[in-house]
Amino acid sequence: MSVDSRKLLARPLQDEPSLDVQGFDRPRAFMDRVAEDLAPLLEIANRPVLTARQFGRDQLVQLCRLAARYETQPSVINRPLTGKILISAFYEPSTRTRLSFESAWHRLGGDVMSITDPLSTGLAKGESLFDIGEMLNHYGDVVVLRDSDERSVYEMLEALRIPIVNAGNGLDEHPTQALADVYALLKWRPSLVDGHSDESPARIGVVGVPGRMRTIRSLLILLSRFAPGLAEIVIVTDEREPFEPDQREELEEAGLRIEVVDDLDVVLPTLDVVYINSIAWKHGDYESLGARYRLSEQSPFKPGAIVLHPLARGGELDRSIDATAHNWYFAQARGAVFIRMALLSALSKTYA
To answer: What is the pLDDT of residue 142?
Structure first.
């Protein structure tokens, strides 16, 4: 056995991450700031979740508050989904999204049927998603679908009489990842729910291509709900046309102030939040975008700035940041379980 292996084996395991950095200690502060009002969530009950556009500000705030309650008070969850079945259909590779949905459903007391390979289903024999959807009506209570074809969730929806949740559809959207992103942001700065505070409006840098990255597309839509508390969204990209037609206009009409730059190090000292991603899913394969943009502990961060990343990461996000206070991406991933618990509770109209 090597010396390094002995050191690893001798290191005690920790039940929880350190609470003095990385945002793991913040959900209670957010929950205490916002009064509970479940009424906005009634509009979500028994409805499909297809796009970030369907969420209003009040729904987002209350979903995040419910998530904070689940995160801070796990002992009071009464397993309201006992006897309910989630059909977890992931026709495209996933770790965090699939496992966080399944973890969320299990924590609420339900059972899970999981599909991780479309070739193990009737699709391999030419069956349509419409027909698969018709069968799923009889087998479960909620469907979560990820597919590299952006049309798949809509084709299955035509036959469904149970809710379906879009867990990523090609280059189009990833609305529940954006919910996790917003949950992290509201824990970092609860005053965003007010639209004003003694703090200066936040300047958020988004490293990526809004027109070709589903995580960023959905995030920008949700950020527009909190536009009064945001000074500016700075898109960092080396693409000449990073937006789809009318995409930027829609966001600006919703209140976002947007700047596009191509030099990350120049703008980095002015950013309160850095959201970075370099991977897009395209036609059954991954595409790397903006690979030249990289963050490390040596990057010229603004004091107090935080870094978010939807994960999985590549060379764009160095591990040297992990032990710094800039790292909020692990707290972001942890919070994804609780925001999905909140969403699934709202869909089922069963709040623990």
So the answer is: 97
Angstrom distance (rounded) from CA 168 to CA 149: 9
Describe the strand order of the beta sheet including 164-169 as a list of residue ranges. 111-115, 85-90, 142-147, 164-169
What is the Cα 235 distance to its own chain's centre?
18
C-alpha neighbours within 13 Å on the C-beta side of residue 296: 6
164: which residues sit within 8 A by CB, 6+ positions away? 48, 49, 50, 133, 142, 143, 144, 145, 153, 156, 157
For strands 142-147 and 202-207, give the pairing. Answer: unpaired
Cis previous bond, 352, omega within 30: no
CA 259 to chain centre: 23
CA distance 48 to 54: 10
> pLDDT tens digits for 9-20?
666 656 555 444
332, 309 in Cβ contact below 8 A?
A: yes
- Token pair for 74: 């796990």
Q: Residue 246: left (phi > 0), alpha (psi -120 to 50), or beta? A: left
Distances from the Cα of 207 to the Cα of 97, 329, 333, angstroms: 21, 14, 18
Segments of the chain with pLDDT less than 50: 1, 18-21
Could you tell me the pTM of the whole model? 0.91
Which residue do the tokens 């700047």 mark?
259
Q: Residue 23 and residue 137: Cα distance in Å, rounded? A: 39
Q: What domains, with CATH codes, occur in the chain? A: 27-172+334-348 (3.40.50.1370), 175-333 (3.40.50.1370)
